[in-house]
Amino acid sequence: MASYRSGPTVPADIITYRLGCKLVYVKPADNYEQALDFAQKEFPEELANVSRNRISFTIMANMNGERKVVRISESAWVAAVARLLRGEVIDVQVRPLAPSADSKELPPQYLDVPHIHVCPHHPLSAPSSPRNRSRDISPTPSSKSDKGRSWFGKA
């Protein structure tokens, strides 16, 4: 929880950065860019491949008797950090990626129709064309043109 000083400001010689459950003492950064440098240096596994514009800093502040999370903007960095007490915690957070027009999620694709292996010597596996569809084998035994044929070949 941020506890601001009301008296003369004496800069804290050490503050705490917290990312998730990890804590590390750091020297208060002179500016926002240096704060980003410190965060990426102290949490390399988590922040090495994260764009700097996605990293933000927050503190817990008492506002009207309620604890609230307050993000520290770049323009307010110097004033906000100058008022923190020694060892005060600044949470380092990674903002989610903003969806862009280029990264619209595509709808799910239908499964491809499997390619059927065509056996040239078997009449059931020959592909039909519009020209010879009338001569396709029918599974009904009552068909006059297919008398004597069964599902398993010639009868």
UniProtKB/TrEMBL annotation:
The lineage of its organism: Eukaryota, Fungi, Dikarya, Basidiomycota, Agaricomycotina. It comes from Hypsizygus marmoreus (White beech mushroom). Residues 121-155 are annotated as: Disordered. Residues 126-143 have a biased composition (Polar residues). This is Uncharacterized protein.
